[in-house]
Specification:
alpha/beta; 8-stranded mixed sheet
Length: about 350
């Protein structure tokens, strides 16, 4: 009798256990090439446009199946486009999620805001936040959804954090990967960066220019893999470079002085408003990040009512781009995210 009960218990556990998530490998990507990714994207992704609150037409894509009841909103980072996230979207979709992506104003496939399309610019950082709200209301919530999640990267993390502190939309959980809650400015101290940005911005206004590059910033130029600070995966990095060569309208250079000022203030505001966020939140930190300031992520978690684990989850030996990293780091990041989401069905 006891043996029979044990057998029944084992069968029940096997039937209720969820399958481990699976992800695309670098070896598969090496065989696939960008054209293969594009072909798969065209078969599975639905492209469209939505209106921002101030009338801009912004592009979006979704991977949707009526069999999926879970959905993820993906909020990308600076210089990025939804087309950069083809591999990630495919992996999330194949693990049972509908996926919603869009491009921020001034980058990707969205309208550029200046005569020079290479300057990364925004008039007010809150424009990004309001664009996310419009995307969710106009596109995401129009589909049947049982469980809604958010996944962001870098600048998208700042946008998502501010949005989560304000929106009335209910999410089961959210994850911020390498969130840009402050920019890595070393060895320049923050107070000096603020002062220089303000002084130079005044000079830009005096010259009658709509926007000027911040110091050291310039038009887009492909960086050799050996000199990049984004990822240790040459395979994924080369696919990114190939994408931007194949689709030159995606190319974006450095940031304007205005963008720099707005971004620094937005990071501070996101930390100050962290206590308003009620959504269960996971913060992933890239161990080797030299793009964003990891200390600001610690400060953000300290202000949250709920930060999974009490502090950022560190992905060891990872550079800034967790979703473009080598398989061990990327798989660990994605498994951590999906395991976290599974706690909040």
């Amino acid at each position: 009798m006891l043996a029979r009960l044990l057998l029944i218990g084992i069968c029940l556990l096997m039937n209720t256990a969820t399958a481990s998530p699976t992800f695309t490998s670098e070896a598969e990507l090496s065989d696939w090439t960008l054209s293969g990714l594009n072909a798969d994207w065209q078969q599975t992704a639905e492209m469209g446009q939505f209106y921002s609150a101030d009338g801009l037409l912004l592009p979006y894509a979704k991977l949707f199946s009526s069999e999926h009841r879970k959905s993820i909103i993906v909020v990308n980072g600076r210089t990025e486009s939804l087309l950069k996230y083809q591999e990630l979207a495919r992996d999330l979709f194949n693990n049972g999620y509908n996926v919603y992506l869009y491009d921020h104003r001034g980058q990707g496939l969205a309208p550029r805001l200046l005569d020079n399309p290479h300057i990364g610019h925004v008039s007010h950082f809150d424009d990004y936040v309001q664009d996310l709200e419009q995307f969710v209301q106009q596109i995401v919530l129009q589909d049947p959804i049982d469980s809604l999640y958010l996944l962001s990267h870098s600048m998208g993390g700042t946008i998502a954090a501010l949005w989560l502190s304000e929106t009335q939309v209910r999410l089961q959980a959210a994850a911020l990967a390498s969130p840009m809650l402050s920019i890595y400015l070393k060895p320049l101290p923050r107070w000096l960066a603020n002062g220089l940005a303000s002084l130079l911005s005044t000079g830009c206004d005096w010259l009658g220019k709509t926007a000027c590059y911040a110091p050291g910033q310039k038009d887009y130029q492909a960086v050799p893999f050996a000199d990049n600070v984004l990822t240790h995966s040459e395979t994924r990095y080369q696919l990114l470079v190939d994408l931007y060569e194949q689709e030159p309208e995606l190319q974006l250079g450095g940031v304007s002085l205005r963008w720099l000022q707005e971004a620094l203030q937005a990071g501070d505001l996101a930390i100050a408003k962290a206590g308003r966020i009620t959504t269960p939140l996971l913060v992933l930190q890239a161990d080797k990040d030299v793009v964003v300031d990891n200390k600001a992520q610690q400060d953000f978690c300290a202000g949250l009512a709920h930060c999974e684990g009490g502090s950022p989850k560190v992905i060891k030996n990872a550079a800034h781009e967790l979703f473009l990293e080598q398989d061990p780091q990327r798989n660990r990041a994605l498994t951590t995210i999906l395991d976290f989401f599974a706690q909040y069905p």
